[in-house]
Amino acid sequence: MKRKLCAPLLSALTLTLFVLPASHHANAQTANSRFSFRAGQSMYIVAFRRLLITTMDSTGGNLTHTDHFDNDLDAERKVRQKIEEWRFFRVVDKPSEADFVFLVNLEDNSIEGLAIPFDAYTKHYKEKYDTDALRDAAYGRYMAGPLNLPTISRLSDRLVKQFRESVSKDGANSR
Q: Do residues 98 and 75 lie in contact, with contact meaning Cβ atoms separated by under 8 Å?
């Protein structure tokens, strides 16, 4: 009698632990997997650094923390240069003309690039910076670093290299 109960219990447990999470993961990926990178698509590049600024009020008692975003035009220029050398995508100067936005986040010795739709860019970056929502909406996420000598040139070179390898691999898999 105990063996008869154990078999169905074991299969239900197996279904719960392995099959259902896998199907949930597959469903989560399908929204972004409909977009595919193709030669000639247009992209808009934005590079920035996010800083947390801590200030003390005039009485000296309360600390306040505010997010501050600085566009990093040097990093944007270097990423753009590498993308243009690749000649796979066309870089545009207006986000409204782009098939997707390549959002580049620089930290101390690392860099992250997100290929995101324009509406996610306006909703989750321009209106209210929401990292999780940006990553959920992303067609792809690419990272480089940490590097011992984290120059903008080295970080952007590695970021575009990883992006290029991923796009090339995905293109080969879709054929």
A: no
CA 68 to chain centre: 20
CB 113 within 8 A of CB 129: no
Residues 62-89: tens digit of each pLDDT = 887 777 788 899 999 999 999 999 999 9
What's the start-to-end Cα distance of the chain, in Å?
53
Please report which confidence band the pLDDT of residue 171 belongs to, taking 50, 70 and 90 as the band edges.
Answer: low
**Backbone φ, ψ for residue 17 (5° rounding):** -80, -35
Contact (Cβ atoms closer than 8 angstroms) between residue 120 and residue 135: no
Helices (H), 87-141: 118-121, 131-137
Report the SS3 class of residue 74: helix
Exposure string for 164-175, b = 16+ CB within 10 A, e = fewer: beebeeeeeeee
